[in-house]
Amino acid sequence: MINRNDSGLSIRESSNVVNENVVNENVVNENVVNENDLNDTQKYKHLWVQCEKCYGLNYKKFLKSKMNICEYCGYHLKMISLDRIELLIDPGTWNPMDEDMVSLDPIEWDSSEFDSSEFDSGEFDSGEFDSGEFDSNEEESYKDRIDSYQRETGLTEAVQIGTGELNGRPVAIGVMDFHFLGGSMGSVVGEKITRLIEYANNHSLPLILVCASGGARMQEGSLSLMQMAKIASALYDYQVTKNLFYISVLTSPTTGGVTASFGMLGDVIIAEPQAYIAFAGKRVIEETLKTTVPEGSQESENLKSKGTCDFIVPREFLKLTLDMLFDMHFFRNRK
Ligand SMILES: [Zn+2]
Fold first, then answer.
1. Which parts of the sequence belong to the CoA carboxyltransferase N-terminal domain (predicted)?
2. Mean of the pLDDT values across residues 303-331?
3. In terms of C-beta density within 10 A (0-12 exposed, 13-18 middle, 19 or more buried), how is residue 142 classed?
4. Of 13, 36, 118, 197, whose CB is crowded by the most CB atoms within 10 A?
């Protein structure tokens, strides 16, 4: 009898389990519906860009005509280097230099031995380039990663250099692109910037460097750190020996080795509003010093009040401001 009761119970229990399974099936069906919604969101993801500050969705098609400024909060979103060149250089005057220079793998980087969470550029990624991307690519070799970024961005490296005219005045300009491996500075980025400075030096051109970088490129180890000294000495010749005029433009984010070298060496340093400018990132400081970095303390407004930069210029006035600064410089030198 006891056995029968037991078996009876077990049958009832199992029927309950079956019912639960039915419920679960319903849940599964709901999930399927949600997944379809998600697929729709994914399907149209490429049409929108989410603001890093207010999380508002900006329609990509109109974003370029608005200079990548968020229509809800006015935050200056990241810009690809090509758009930046279009914004600053007169149409039809852009002459790129050293476009075929490509990174090799000088120290045969093995990413599997490395904790990608410490990767400089990973920290500042948001929106399209979240740090998750670095995790999923963890097993890719450095060379493969360069290849895939080249396919994605159509660029050969994280900086574009060249000459062009700014309101009719010839200038040498280098524009970093955060979308290429977090704008990190490896030996090719350093070499291209150095060559640009030397070209500007030889042709007595004013120089603009637009910074956007997660810092030195870890995959090239100390070779990327050497770029800081190389660029700084080329700038010494340019600024001190030849007395030529260099303006650095700091966009969000400008960090690490770029901040610590040419970012801070401009005769005039311009920052974009609310741009994240730092040497070490917030997370690194907090983990190392076990303190909290106050909100906004690494943004251009706070840094300007400490004397780190000279002007904060909204994007729509950037070309005009550069033009005025060059006017003043050449007027002073003419006297
Ligand atoms: Zn916004």
1. 47-335
2. 96
3. buried
4. 197
Q: In this structure, is residue 69 part of a structural domain?
A: no
Q: Are residues 17 and 164 in the same domain?
A: no
Quick check: 196 and 239 in contact, CB under 8 A? no
d(CA 220, CA 199): 25
40, with CB counted inside 10 A (0-12, 13-18, 19+), is exposed
**Average of pLDDT values for 11-16?**
40
Task: Quote the ligand 1 centre to 111 CA distance (angstroms).
Answer: 35
How many whole angstroms from 91 Cα to the centroid of ligand 1?
A: 29
The DSSP result for 170-192, as a single string, is EEEEEEE-TTTGGG-B-HHHHHH
Q: Is 51 annotated as a binding residue?
A: yes
d(C-alpha 279, C-alpha 262), whole Å: 12
Q: 290 is written with which tokens? A: 């076990």
Pairwise pLDDT comparison (129 vs 261), residue with the higher score: 261
DSSP H or E run through 162: strand 159-166
Report how far ligand 1's centroid is from the alpha carbon of 299 (Å).
Answer: 16
CB 206 within 8 A of CB 169: yes
Angstrom distance (rounded) from CA 129 to CA 131: 7
| Contacts of the segment 23-27: beta carbons below 8 A, 24+ positions apart | none
In a domain, 200, yes or no: yes
**pLDDT at residue 6 tops 70:** no
According to the model, what pLDDT value does residue 114 have?
58
CATH of the domain at 153: 3.90.226.10
Q: Is 309 annotated as a binding residue?
A: no
What is the Å distance from ligand 1's center to 75 Cα? 5
Same domain, 108 and 201: yes
